[in-house]
Amino acid sequence: MLMTTSLAFIGGLGGPEIAVIFVVVLLLFGAKKIPELARGLGKSMGEFKRARDEFEDEIKMAEMDVSTETEAKEAKHKEEASDVS
User: Fold this and answer.
1) 70 is in which domain, residue-wise?
2) Are residues 24 and 49 in the same domain?
3) In Å, how far are 37, 41, 49, 75 from 13, measured between CA atoms?
4) Is it the case that residue 4 has pLDDT exceeding 80?
5) What contacts 13, CB < 8 A, 6 or more positions away?
6) Residues 23, 48: one domain?
7) Distances (CA, A) of 53 to 29, 48, 60, 65
8) Residues 83 and 49 placed together within one structural domain of the fold
9) Rounded to two decimals, what is the model's pTM?
């Protein structure tokens, strides 16, 4: 059930379909090559996640910088307005 739920975006991929896909992959690549392919896929997914996290961190830092600059400008304007009064 977990497999079907996680692959729901594919559109009702059931047990028999997954078995057929696995057999085709086994025939195409062989039993020795599948672990290497899975390892490479895992590494690339990890690298993608790391790059995504770095990108999100950069966006958050930029947002913080902008809000800090905005707060500083507002404080400066308030100070100037109180000096004028």
Assistant:
1) 43-85
2) no
3) 22, 21, 26, 58
4) no
5) 4, 7
6) no
7) 33, 9, 11, 18
8) yes
9) 0.52
